[in-house]
Specification:
Elements (H helix, E strand, L loop, with lengths): L4 E9 L6 H9 L6 E2 L12 E2 L6 H5 L5 H5 L3 H17 L11 E6 L17 H5 L3 H10 L5 E4 L5 H14 L5 E8 L4 H9 L29 E9 H6 L6 E10 L12 H14 L8 E3 L6 H15 L8 E2 L2 H4 L6 H15 L1 E2 L22 E2 L4 E8 L3 E8 L7
Parallel strand pairs: 4-5, 4-6, 9-10, 9-13
Antiparallel strand pairs: 1-7, 1-8, 2-3, 6-7, 8-14, 11-12, 13-14
Helix pairs in contact: 4-6, 7-13, 10-11
Length: 409
């Protein structure tokens, strides 16, 4: 038996806000969350900017996590747990009314953020803070869920993989509800230094808010962001039985490996194109049905060039009529959280009939000539959308989202 899978709850924490409504309003307004780094002294780094979560998060998190448990979590893990709790609240789900053995958690986790910027790490809590399975474990403990519970690490595609795997569990009747998503932060001296050595990060430090400029001629690398995104996936019949509001339906996905290079994407976007083609096929969606693409759009030379080429390869002449935008222009690259956060933005775009912009698109690259929704949000009825995530190591994911006609819009 295969079942339809819907999104009944969502939450995100990013540099643009601590709740989904604030984030959405700021994204639609085209605001940038990129600023000078405050988490540590970055004056000795080539890159001195990032999209940090507002400092109010610490006080905010105390409303959701008890002091003892919080002391065993990193700041990043707390972001994940808070996002999970607010997503569950957003969904209106009551696990006491469900079979908890058929409810689970999958989180995309590259690392837990137990780096040089983490405070109050001691011999008593360092193991708990470092465990990459700690994020799904804490969430499972919170709701006493005894179904599937694990973390997945596929670099920048990690939380997109988590969404796909959660979808598969429900679709194949292995679970009824899955809490999926991810959280991440690599805003610390050592990782910024490492990415600077690879010439991957933007060094356009002034003004910070103009540094992330996907698809632009003067792009010079990605800007690090941080945050968390969590979605509640449900079997359609369960959501309908409790009269849940539905944001969107997940129609399918593709997960592929380029098996090409540890850092660079496959030449001319061949691997990216294959992933999108496979996702469309798996979802049973025709190319003519795609109304929007939330791009991986990192603001690096190769990603933006090859992703553009891949979209043209898949959609042909129609590629020029599909709006493509990158939310990383506003919130930076949230690494392991990116797939979930951008999946949430895609679902909200469907819900509200609004495409968020690619800001800082001031100097078009003549070789990149798609409709990148430059600088200003755009109203559009979106029936089907793609969200792309492409990670170091050749880990590719494309998620297919559909408007759910029986949900709110």
């Amino acid at each position: 038996m295969t079942r339809r899978v819907v999104i009944s709850g969502m939450s995100m924490i990013s540099s643009l806000g601590l709740d989904i409504q604030t984030n959405w309003e700021n994204l639609v307004a085209g605001k940038s969350g990129v600023k000078k780094i405050h988490l540590f002294d970055a004056s000795h780094n080539g890159t001195q900017i990032a999209a940090e979560v507002p400092p109010e998060f610490e006080e905010f998190s105390r409303n959701y996590i008890k002091k003892r448990a919080a002391s065993q979590m990193t700041r990043v893990t707390r972001m994940c747990v808070v996002a999970a709790k607010t997503a569950v609240a957003n969904s209106g789900i009551d696990f006491a009314q469900l079979d908890r053995s058929r409810c689970g958690v999958i989180m995309g986790v590259v690392n837990t953020g137990n780096s040089s910027v983490e405070k109050d790490t001691s011999t008593q809590n360092t193991v708990f803070k470092t465990m990459t399975n700690s994020m799904p474990a804490w969430i499972s403990l919170e709701y006493q869920l005894t179904g599937p519970n694990f973390a997945v690490n596929t670099a920048c595609a990690s939380s997109a993989y988590a969404i796909a795997l959660g979808y598969e569990m429900i679709r194949n009747n292995q679970a009824d509800v899955m809490i999926v998503g991810g959280a991440d932060s690599i805003i610390n001296f050592e990782e910024i230094q490492g990415f600077n050595a690879l010439y991957a990060l933007s060094v356009a430090n002034d003004p910070p808010e103009k540094a992330s400029k996907p698809f632009s001629r003067d792009r010079d690398g990605f800007v690090i962001g941080e945050g968390s995104g969590v979605l509640i996936l449900e079997a359609e019949e369960l959501a309908n039985s409790r009269n849940a509001s539905v944001y969107a339906e997940i129609a399918g996905y593709a997960l592929t490996s380029e098996a090409y290079n540890i850092m660079a994407p496959m030449k001319d976007g061949e691997g990216m194109a294959f992933t999108m083609e496979k996702a469309l096929s798996n979802a049973g969606v025709a190319k003519e049905e795609i109304d929007y693409i939330n791009a991986h759009g990192t603001s690096t030379e190769l990603n933006d060039r090859y992703e553009t080429m891949a979209i043209k390869r898949v959609f042909g002449d129609r590629a020029y009529r599909i709006p493509v935008s990158s939310s990383k222009s506003m919130i930076g690259h949230t690494i392991g959280a990116a797939g979930a956060i951008e999946g949430i933005i895609t679902a909200l775009s469907i819900t509200h009939g609004m495409v968020t912009p690619t800001i800082n698109y001031d100097q078009p690259d003549p070789d990149l000539d798609l409709d990148y929704v430059a600088n200003t949000a755009r109203k559009k009825d979106i029936r089907v959308a793609l969200s792309n995530s492409f990670g170091f190591g050749g880990h590719n994911a494309t998620l297919v989202f559909k408007k759910y006609m029986n949900g709110f819009s």
